[in-house]
Amino acid sequence: MSLLGTIQQLADFDTALLANTIGYVDATPPEEWYMGGSIQSVTPTLGPTVGVAVTCELDTSTPGNQVDMEPFLQQLEKIHAMEEPVVWVAKAIGSRPDHECIMGDGMAKMLYAAGSVGAVTNGGVRDVDGLLSVPYPVYSKGTVIHHTPIRFCKINQPVEIGGITVSPGDVIHANKEGVIKIPPGCLDVLTERAIAMRAVEHESHIGNRRSDLEPREAKRRTAAKVKEYGF
Fold first, then answer.
1. Which pLDDT band, with edges at 50, 70 and 90, does 136 fall under?
2. DSSP string, 107-142
3. Beta carbons of 175 and 42 less than 8 angstroms apart
4. Residues 14-34 pLDDT 10s
5. HSE (CB half, 13 Å, CA atoms) of 111?
6. Which CATH number fits domain 29-182: 3.50.30.40, 3.40.190.10, 3.40.50.740, 3.90.400.10?
7. For position 1, what pLDDT does the model report?
8. DSSP bridge pairs for 182
9. How far is the C-alpha of 86 from the C-alpha of 83, rounded, in Å?
């Protein structure tokens, strides 16, 4: 199956379910692929968000910045030419981290029109009502009301956000509970295995609700379900 087809299928799953599945089917340590809780959805009614990462570094907080938006326009052209949906991953690197505001609904409209389905950043954003209306899901450190002149510093290079490194081309999956990058080694099997994991969780949770079962028996039954579905 093409990468586009895989991405379209993965949009049917919530991010936590995929994270649980990855833990069973891929040897990549989890600390390398799930972001920390500082990165949260500011548009929780939108999502899941799934796409290929296009990355950049920008400064939106340093006093005396000189505007440089040319790299952003280059990225929009790149996104427009890509077949797969894109998650724009923007690392804020300015001198006043609490003042970083990497985008509002104006930039969101341009990204959306080019083919981006959402953004992830360690900075802040604004115009949340506008983001919702696009619709354009964003995962960030929160909201910040304004910014200094925006200067793009690097594009299309690995960036560290939320405690993990995201490289151009990584598949990002996110929803209102958080953000992961999917290890490439499990992409081909993840949809099939996630369907099985959904069944494991559904059947196990029914048992977990039963007050007549001893805790160890409930745990044993869950382990049996995991094994039954091939994990």
1. very high
2. HHHHHHHHTEEEEEESSEE--HHHHHHTT--EEES-
3. no
4. 999 999 999 999 999 999 999
5. 28
6. 3.50.30.40
7. 86
8. 171
9. 9
Secondary structure class of 166 (helix, strand, coil): strand
Residue 51 three-state SS: strand
Is the confidence at residue 143, as pLDDT, over 90? yes
The DSSP symbol for 66 reads P
Which pair of structure tokens corresponds to residue 89?
């991953």
For the chain, the residue count is: 231
Task: Name the amino acid, one letter, at 32.
Answer: E
Question: What are 36-49's pLDDT values in tens digits?
Answer: 999 999 999 998 99
Q: What are phi and psi of 13, to 5 degrees?
A: -115, 150
Q: Residue ranges per domain, the chain?
A: 29-182, 189-228
Question: Is 173 within 8 Å of 15 (Cβ atoms)?
Answer: yes
Q: Report the alpha-carbon distance of residue 225 to residue 221 in Å, rounded.
A: 6
Closest CA to 121 of 51, 56, 73, 48: 56
Assess contact for 126 and 13: CB atoms under 8 A: no
* Average pLDDT rounded to a whole number, residues 114-140: 98
Task: Establish whether the linkage from the previous residue to 149 is cis, with ω within 30° of 0.
Answer: no
Tokens of 88: 């724009």
Query: Against a cut of 0.85, is the pTM above it?
Result: yes
